[in-house]
Specification:
The structure holds two protein chains of two kinds. Chain A has no helices and eleven strands. By secondary structure, chain A is mainly β. In chain A, strands 2, 4, 5, 6, 9, 10 and 11 form a seven-stranded mixed sheet that branches. In chain A, a hairpin with a 3-residue loop joins strand 4 and strand 5. Chain B is mostly beta strands. Classes of the chains: A mainly beta, B mainly beta. The interface between A and B is medium-sized, with 29 and 26 residues.
Amino acid sequence: DVKVTQSSRYLVKRTGEKVFLECVQDMDHENMFWYRQDPGLGLRLIYFSYDVKMKEKGDIPEGYSVSREKKERFSLILESASTNQTSMYLCASSPGGIIPTEAFFGQGTRLTVV
Amino acid sequence: GENVEQHPSTLSVQEGDSAVIKCTYSDSASNYFPWYKQELGKRPQLIIDIRSNVGEKKDQRIAVTLNKTAKHFSLHITETQPEDSAVYFCAARSGQAGTALIFGKGTTLSVSS
């Protein structure tokens, strides 16, 4: 079974803190993604990576950055957390190649910024 | 970039009825269209997907249809059951390198017995 694991299920951080959300996959997938899920807004793409050290902005990258130093790990960084970043964050991974295939999701991290 | 619209946002049906969720996409280069189901408190999981060289695909009570000319695709669930109650997301992605899966806003399906 593909396993995508996010380091925390719940996080509470203070405004202005630097926050790291970690995601690890064990299937040697080339592609990794970070989404943010808010009620009524669906899954919005923050950043994605299709190779080590490669990153692409998604639809809502402002206030976030990412790091992919190793193929299995993709980190989302909130440089200075703000209350409007309180949300559910979902990591996903999928194989590379020309023919797109299923993306597998982690269990999500519910982040609260106070 | 790709934009995916999904309708309706909520759908209530009686057990045994059919449910249909529709999505449209904007990027004509998109060639992969998955549907995910997310139960309360759980991660999204793939239930069915379709590629652009296929017009329809079925898996037991669920089916997906694709109209590439009109850039829309639909999920059909027949003989709905209470356990079908969940949020359903459609998505689209092109086969070009460096592209991501873009999701619709989701449909909350409620099946009452």
